[in-house]
Amino acid sequence: MTVKKSWILGAALLLLFCVIAAIFALSSQSYNTQTIQPLLHRTLSVDKAERIVPNLDIRYDGKEYRRDVNPFGLIEFLLRKGAHLFVYGVLAGAAALVLRMFRLRTSVVVGLSLLTVLLVAILDEWNQRYSTARTPTYQDVLVDLTGGMLSLAVCYGISRLYRRFSRGR
């Protein structure tokens, strides 16, 4: 392995471990530390919150999130699940970046990247069992896997488009 590739592998591994460390640092925090509802109450009126949130009802882990009942709770829920999709998407991308350095087949890279996401997501939910006012749920593992799959699909889609258009030059 050349010096340049060693440096890239080291940077990719550092990114991977930083993402995993951030996930566990956040899952160790209490819900009260992470909630953004007080900020939403200070910055938005109920009317404005109801206008910016789509008119939908979500049932998730035995709870109901509704715009007409608690728009701030719905906003927070959507942001939290969006954060799950994003962070676990970054995790999948970082894992794929590391694995690509070993010249593995794409299917192996995708499979191992998603396995990494699954293992970290399960450990993350297990860690939440010991955090104050946090509720571990299997649904979050599914959201995390979805984020990983979407990220890999986007990354590989962009890669294919890039290769297709760069060959035509």
UniProtKB/TrEMBL annotation:
Annotated protein name in UniProt: VanZ-like domain-containing protein
Pfam families, per the entry: VanZ
UniProt keyword Transmembrane helix, yes or no: yes
TM ranges: 82-99, 106-123, 143-162
Keywords tagged on the record: Membrane, Transmembrane, Transmembrane helix
Domain VanZ-like: 13-156
Keyword Transmembrane helix tagged: yes
Domain of life where this protein originates: Bacteria
